[in-house]
Amino acid sequence: MDHLLMGLLLVMVLLAIYCPALPQAVGACLRHRRRETLACPETESPVSVQVDAACAARTAICGRPLLRVQDCTRWPGRMGCAQGCLAKVA
């Protein structure tokens, strides 16, 4: 019984810590779940980019979300680029 009570208290503490940031995480995930057409800074041509929404959501809990490309129409040939196109993502 003591283990159950301790587990419940731990869950309550974790929820109290993360709940204030939960709306930011959900918002970041929803904002970045769709592909976006952006201008590639290397070629100045339009590319279709998928932002890693899960990473954006996880990092939004601690403040500003970290944006990184999950998929791009220029990949795999240009995989590992500087991802400068993300500067234009809201």
Description:
The chain has 90 residues and is α+β, with helices and mostly antiparallel strands. Helices cover 39% and strands 16% of the residues. It has three helices and three strands. It has helices at 2-18, 22-31, 53-60, and strands spanning 36-39, 46-51, 69-72. The chain has a three-stranded antiparallel sheet, with no helix packed on it. A hairpin with a 6-residue loop joins strand 1 (36-39) and strand 2. Helix 2 packs antiparallel against helix 3 (53-60). The longest helix has 17 residues, at 2-18. The termini are far apart. The model has no long low-confidence stretch (mean pLDDT 86).
Poorly predicted regions: none
Strand content: 15-25%
Topology pattern, helix = H, strand = E: HHEEHE
- How many H/I helical runs? 3
Q: Calculate the mean pLDDT score and round it.
A: 86
* Largest sheet features: 3 strands, antiparallel
Q: Can you count the beta strands?
A: 3
The rounded distance between the terminal residues' Cα atoms is: 49 Å
**Coarse shape:** elongated
Strand order of the largest sheet: 1-2-3
Helix vs. strand class: alpha+beta
Gyration radius (Cα, Å) is 18 Å
Helix content range of the residues, please? 25-40%
